[in-house]
Amino acid sequence: MPLSRLSLADLFGEALSGMVQRPGRSVLTLLGTVLGVGAFVAVLGLTSTASGQIGKRFSLLENTTVTLVDNGAPAPGQRGDPRAPVDFPADADTRVAGLNGARAAGVYWPAPLENPRISSSPAAGSDDGGGLGLYAASPGLFDAMETGLQAGTTYNRFHAEHGMRVAVLGSTAAARLGISRLDAQPAVFVNGVGFTVIGIIGDTRRLPQTLLGVLVPDTTARTLWGDPQPLEQGRARMLVRTDVGAAPLVAGQAPTALRPEQPGLFAATAPPDPHGLRDSVADDLTGLFLLLAAICLVIGAVGIANTTLVAVLERTGEIGLRRALGARPRHVAAQFLTESTVLGTLGGLVGTAIGVAVVVSVALARDWTAVLQTWTVLPAPLAGSLVGLLAGLYPSLRAATVEPAEALRR
Question: In angstroms, what CA-CA distances link 10 with 5, 331, 335?
C-alpha cells in the first residue's frame, strides 16, 4: 500500500473542519488568546499614552521654574566688603521679572521665629494655629507661584513699601484658624502682633507648603522679626516663573541681574531634566504591565493546551479511523497543531483589535493623544500564533501516538 500524503490544502481543510464542527468550543478556546493578546496591546498602549501625558506635565511645570538661593554670609576670615543682611536688592522682583523669558519673580523665607504662636484671637494662651508656617514674602511671589485666590486679594508693593501689617493665608491655614470670610476684616496674631487678613489662597502650582502657612510682606517681617537666618533652610530664596524652555537662560542671567558686581552671591538652580524622570517612570510602568501581559498570555496558552488535549481525547475514535484508513502519525499531529495555531492566530487578531480599540477609547475619553508603538501592535497577532503553536505541541504529539486498533476499541 502506497504511503498516504497530506497536501497543505487538505491539512488546512481538515483543521478548519475540526474547528467548525464544534464552534462553541472553538470560541471558548479563542477567548484565552483574545484576553492575553488584548491585554498585551492595551496595557502597552495605555502605558505609552499615560507616560506621554506624565512627561508633558513634568515638562510644563519643571521647565518653567527657577530657584535662586542667597548663599549667606561668608565664613569667618573670608569676609571682605560689608555684606547686607539680605543679598536680594529691594527691587529684586522687578529686576528678574524683566529678563527675557521670565514671567514673574518673588523672594521669600521662613520667618526667623522659633515656635511662633499663631492664632485668630489676641487672647493670651490661645493657639489655634499650631503647626502653621510663617513666611516673609515679597509681593511678586504670588504671581510666581501662580496662586488662585479663594477670597480677597494679595498684598502689593504699596503694602510692602509702607511695612503694613497685612497677611495672606493659605486655604488650609485659614480653615485651621476658622477664617472663611473677609468682609469683617478678620485678623491673625503672631506672638500677639495683629495682621489684617486681606486674602486667602485657594490653590497654587508652586510652593504648595504655603497653603498651610501665613504670608506677610518681607519688609514688615524684617522690621518685626529681623533678617533671614544664615542656615540653609532659613535663607532667603527667589522663585522665578519662566516661559517654557527659557528656564536655563533665566537661571544663568538672574544672579547678574540681581547683583552685577557679585553674581556669585546666589546659587541658581536650573530645572532638572524631566526626561530622565519621565523615562524612569515609563520604564517602571512598562516592565510591570509587560509582566501582567505575559501572565495573561500564559493563561491563554494553558487554556488552548487544555482545550486541545480534551479535543484529542474526545476524537480518539476519529483519530483511530483516520489511522486505519492510512493517515500517518505526523498527519494527525499536523492537523491538531494547525488547529491550535489557527485558533491562536485568530485570537491574536481579535485581541489586537480589541486592545487598540481600548487604547483609542481611553485616550478620547480623557482628551489625551493615543500613543501606539508599532512594535507592540504589529507582532501581537504573531504572538497569538506562537502561543497557539506552543500550546498545541503536547496535544498533537499525544494524538500522533494513538494506536488505531486501541482507538477503535474505545
Answer: 10, 10, 9
Do 195 and 268 lie in one domain? The reply is yes
CA distances from 162 to 104, 165, 332 (A): 22, 9, 97
CB distance 37 to 300 below 8 Å? yes
130, 264: one domain: yes
| Number of domains into which the chain is organized | 2
User: Which residue do the cell numbers 518653567 mark?
Assistant: 64
Give the three-state DSSP class for 123.
Answer: coil
Could you say which of 223, 256, 272 is where a domain stops? 272
How does pLDDT run across 299-331, given as a tens digit for each residue? 777 777 777 777 777 777 777 777 777 778 888
Read off the pLDDT of residues 16-42 as tens digits, 9 standing for 90 and up: 777 777 777 777 777 777 777 777 787
All three cell numbers of 93, joined, read 522682583
Any idea what DSSP says for residue 326?
T
Q: Is 158 inside a domain boundary?
A: yes
Q: Is residue 351 part of a domain?
A: yes
Alpha helices by DSSP H, listed for 22-100, are: 23-62, 92-97
Helix locations, 149-192, DSSP H = 157-161, 171-177
Q: Which residues have C-beta within 8 Å of that of residue 366, sequence separation ≥ 6?
A: none
Q: Tally the residues of the chain.
A: 410
Same domain assignment for residues 126 and 202? yes
pTM: 0.54
